[in-house]
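Hi W.,

Here's what went into the run:
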Amino acid sequence: MVIKITDMYKNYGRGSSAVTALRKVNLEISPGEIIAIMGPSGSGKSTLMNIIGCLDRPTKGIYRFKGKNVNSLNDNQLAELRNKHIGFVFQNFNLLSRATALTNVELPMIYAGTPARKRRTIAMELLEVVGLQDRINHKPSELSGGQKQRVAVARALVNHPAVLLADEPTGNLDSKTGAEIMKLFDTLNGIGVTVILVTHDREVANYARRVVYIRDGEIVSDTRTSKESGEGKIPDQMPAGPKYPPSF
Amino acid sequence: MKLFEALRVAFRGLTANKMRSLLTMLGVILGVGSVITLVSIGEGVKSSISKQIQGLGSNLVLVTPGTGTAGTNASTLVGSVSKLTYDDALAVERHSPSVRNVAPLIESSATAQYKDRKTTLLSGTTESYSEVRNIPVAFGDFFSLGDIRGYRAVAVLGDTVRKDLFPGVNPLGKTIRVNNKDFKIIGVMKRKGRTLTIDNDNRVFIPITVAEELLGTKQVNMMFIQSRSPDVVGDAVADSKRILRERHKKTDFAVSEQKDILSAFQGIMGVLTGMLGGIAGVSLLVGGIGIMNIMLVTVTERTREIGIRKAVGAKRRDILAQFLLESVFVSALGGLIGIAAGFAGARLLKEAVPRLPTVITPWSIAVAFLFALLVGLFFGIYPARKAARLDPIEALRYE
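Here's what came out:
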């Protein structure tokens, strides 16, 4: 298991004003999976993503990442974990606006202490993988949305992460570019990268072979699909909207 | 993250907003520059006057009325009730084997007239003055013991008086009127130059006996005593004290060697220089507050960047180092430019006011630069800590 979450709760605030964002979440993700976490806004999927991404810690319950108990790690240890094992792709790209594509891709390696020359080689390689070899010295403002997201994907991959965590990766892209980015994730998954997609977009979820649906802080369904047989279609029992009752 | 990388990241952060970085730096530049310039004034005055005091010669002893250190007490400025006289001088000269010469000095402001009138300092003294003070005559002669004993109305001019009253004319043999008495000019002193604003050459020297009559006083303003050699200065001091005390029956005078005067003066100048530096240091402090202000703005502006960096693995200390290095870099570069500005300021001042000597000392550069660095570090800590403590989730969400 790369990710094992057991009876996890996340509360914000304390006492009577406390808000429970996640309740009794159980989730296991194996290496090589491509999984979509779906849910409407306010469902707690962002909170779940932050915890999976080691940006936040659970209030209660146990989160093991590659067997390591994340709850007991301090901020610096979390930073190291994110640096070495988790690649982030955000809806709004989150690139450093003043840095070139190359520097953006090099960023995680700077904090990993990779020597400059090696950093450059790896960053160039990955920019080539995402098809931006002729855009390495462009700044984000000189790149299209799709190109920006490719830079972000390349950045996410530089330290050979165990998990690629994508938060609405196509949210700011047109459907054609979005599809290209999703194909990129699909390809990466094909070579063994674990991909976690957090989305409310069913098109995106279609690329996953497993869909976890979350609502009001609880996982309401966890369905595996076979991409070969179902053509990536979301199964019928998938809760479609807020009115759909939990299927547990 | 290695230091070099951190430096590079910090440098990029600064170059991203050049105008702002420059303006922030300006505070430090002016601070360091003014510390160096102001201290250079203090040091310059100190060294130029010290040189003049040292020029007195190490075998010189100064006796003044009153009880403070010679040259530094109020009595030398406003005159004194204590009575040092020409006879005292003669007694010291006669009875101390360590004393070679004694030159008493009666000074008074007076008006000298040839064709034009000039306000000058009338100085009644003895024949040994020129030797004791080590000021030779440029031409003509200094007056002799005979002139003193014979109450002869002869005068030796300082260089300024010669220049002002006898432009292009040889003054030797001419007669000038000082306080309604005619004096025959027998010599002109060599130029001595200014001590800050005081013109040492605006003097008219006359025999002390004539001065006593003319001014109606026997009180001597000060006595210069020359010991036989630098080694017996201590004996000369002791002898002078003993002889004068015997004559006066009390200690109503002060005897000091050149080194006492020097150290007293340097003490005063040290305090003054420190004060000047301190005042300039305040501006450096203000520059530091400017750094903190801008760094706080920068941290807020770059919240999102901090979030991104943290998300991809930057630790607290990485962010801390980045912003701290930015502020230290600003203060260090500002400090370096400020040193150049200080040199330029000191030089310009010397050009503009030739009377004001400026001397740049290595310690003032070191202190100003280190203080600038410290200011950058100190005022950079709070913003950098603020940046380092940002929650990555909040920071990423920041618009």
